[in-house]
Amino acid sequence: MTVSDLISIPEQWGLKVEEWTELSPRVSLIKTNKGKYIIKKKENLENAQIELALLQKLNGEPIKIQMPIASETGEYSFTHNQNVFVVYEYIDGEIIHAKDGLENSSIPNSLGETIGFLHKKLNSTFLEDKFPKRDLHQIVYDWAFKEVMKVYKEPQLENIYLSLEEDILKIARELPKQLIHRDTHVTNFVFEGEQIKGVLDFEIAEVNVRIFDICYCSTSVLSEVFGDDKLRQSWHEFIAQVVRGYSKVNPLSESEVRSIWHVMLCIQSIFMAYFCNDPGLFETNKRMFLWIYENRDQIENTVDVKSS
User: Would you tell me which CATH number, out of the four given (3.20.20.150, 3.90.1200.10, 3.40.50.720, 3.40.190.10), belongs to the domain 98-302?
Assistant: First the structure.
């Protein structure tokens, strides 16, 4: 069942639906007598309640968070056929494209600053015990590496993973960890001009190394421009601006900056494993993994760190 099957349900929120646009099987945009809203199908009621507690602590200056809307009876979720749904406010603004971020340095700087502010607020919620705790080494070597080797057991790739394991183990053990957004794809930031107006989608927040969010944001842009040689070469400066923006409000340690290249490879490993059953997407993410691996010097020099 898709979200659009529930077109009558939002009436308990006092909303008269005039137009329904399904954005994905779990998410829809509705236009109502009171304006636009987003409806999301949730994994379960407990997760919806934990997310609500987090969003209520996060919302406010300097960051606008997409908030759930309470019903007339004070409820923040509803159920239908044993599925849980939440109605969210709609943040009007612009979702930028990767090319925009590569051509305007103010955009990655704003992304870095916003993630930096967001991490400060996430760290002050004291809700870490409510969210999954992830170990980057375990994710890569107990799952992703094994899945990748099932479909692409090639000596060069296997040797790369084996050569990186000690470094990734050290990163997972020693780098600062905290509650992070985890899905800092550039499309989860709503812009107004060059400034970020709002942040979306905290549904997969977790405790992990904090630079994961910086790296994920950067690789999300790379994935959109990877087939364009010119744009791909300008991506290095995008990373630098994200790091500078972040560090202005939430300084990174030297060891964190030095680990950005490694964490990007971990993220690509996760995507390769996730898309093992889709040859086209697996191949794209494998090519990105190898390109990032081969461009270590340029990536590290761009963020003012010499190769170790």
Answer: 3.90.1200.10
